[in-house]
């Protein structure tokens, strides 16, 4: 396995840009991670039109995308790296290394690069053809990760580490991905003055970005503005606290925005 190195993204988010060395120093320090405060994810919907037969219109589908702040992303990446090797060993021991493909880098037969969804699909079709007369089951599980038993997830996480109770740094990361908060992207931009009413080229008033995406600041706001405009009561922040603490009861809190109550799904 290649050594881990952080990638510091430069997309607009709440936290400042830091150097690769700073990100690595924090992400690889268990004490720092155990007390780290994670920012909420930013959320938007990615839409596309589903495949349809010629002459018909495909149904529009939307997939919610939630992405982490820069340093948070580096921490998630590092803990994924820490879990990857014991996870691969577990799959091999259980005889599942050739079956489980999600969130894994599976090399091509020539060893050059990882396989794509197209190659995975082809291998499945080839396997079906080789079996001849057989039954094939295809299904799509909606909100798969959200439907998982997070207590069980924590237990499996501990099994990979060989412990019965997650270390504080691992538990902090576990909490950050199972009991997270998110902010609707356009709501955040509106609160910060980057999105709102403007005149189009026909002189009509409509909602839109008040500056181009290229001109959007990489750090959307400082800590004071974040607390006042995003995280305060009435701010567009959804907290989704799921089950799975160290024996603590779960609770869910949803803040209200000035315009509507935001959905609290993850």
Question: How would you describe the overall organization of this protein?
Answer:
With about 270 residues, the protein is an alpha+beta fold. It is about 35% helix and about 15% strand. The longest helix has 24 residues. The protein contains nine helices and six strands, in the order ααββαααααβαββαβ. The radius of gyration is 22 Å and the shape is globular.
List the helices and strands and how they pair.
Blueprint: H1 20-27, H2 30-34, E1 41-49, E2 60-67, H3 70-93, H4 117-131, H5 144-147, H6 150-161, H7 168-178, E3 181-184, H8 185-191, E4 195-199, E5 205-209, H9 223-230, E6 237-239
Parallel strand pairs: 1-3
Antiparallel strand pairs: 1-2, 3-6, 4-5
Sheet with most strands: 4 strands, mixed
Count of runs of 4 or more consecutive helical residues: 9
Proportion of residues in extended strands:
5-15%
Q: H/E order of the elements?
A: HHEEHHHHHEHEEHE
Percent helix, as a range, is: 25-40%
Give the radius of gyration. Answer: 22 Å
Q: Distance N terminus to C terminus?
A: 32 Å
Tally of DSSP β-strands: 6
Low-confidence blocks of residues: 241-266
The 3D shape can be described as globular
| Mean residue pLDDT | 85
Order of strands side by side in the largest beta sheet?
2-1-3-6
Structural class: alpha+beta
């Amino acid at each position: 396995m290649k050594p881990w190195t952080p990638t510091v993204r430069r997309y607009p988010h709440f936290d400042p840009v830091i150097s690769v060395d700073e990100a690595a120093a924090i992400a690889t320090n268990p004490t720092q991670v155990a007390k780290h405060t994670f920012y909420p994810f930013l959320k938007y919907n990615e839409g596309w039109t589903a495949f349809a037969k010629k002459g018909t219109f495909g149904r529009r589908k939307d997939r919610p995308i939630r992405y982490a702040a820069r340093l948070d992303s580096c921490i998630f990446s590092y803990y994924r790296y820490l879990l990857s090797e014991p996870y691969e060993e577990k799959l091999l021991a259980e005889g599942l290394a050739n079956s489980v493909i999600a969130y894994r880098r599976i090399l091509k037969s020539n060893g050059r690069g990882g396989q794509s969804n197209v190659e995975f699909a082809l291998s499945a079709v080839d396997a079906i053809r080789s079996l001849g007369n057989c039954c094939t089951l295809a299904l799509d599980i909606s909100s798969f990760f959200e439907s998982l038993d997070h207590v069980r997830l924590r237990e499996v996480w501990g099994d990979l580490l060989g412990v019965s109770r997650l270390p504080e740094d691992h538990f902090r990361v576990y909490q950050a991905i199972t009991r997270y908060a998110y902010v609707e992207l356009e709501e955040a931009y509106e609160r910060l003055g980057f999105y709102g009413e403007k005149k189009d080229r026909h002189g009509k008033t409509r909602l839109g970005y008040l500056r181009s995406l290229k001109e959007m600041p990489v750090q959307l706001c400082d800590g004071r503005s974040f607390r006042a405009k995003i995280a305060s009561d009435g701010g567009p922040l959804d907290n989704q606290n799921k089950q799975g603490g160290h024996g603590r009861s779960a609770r869910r809190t949803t803040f209200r925005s000035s315009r509507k109550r935001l959905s609290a799904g993850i």
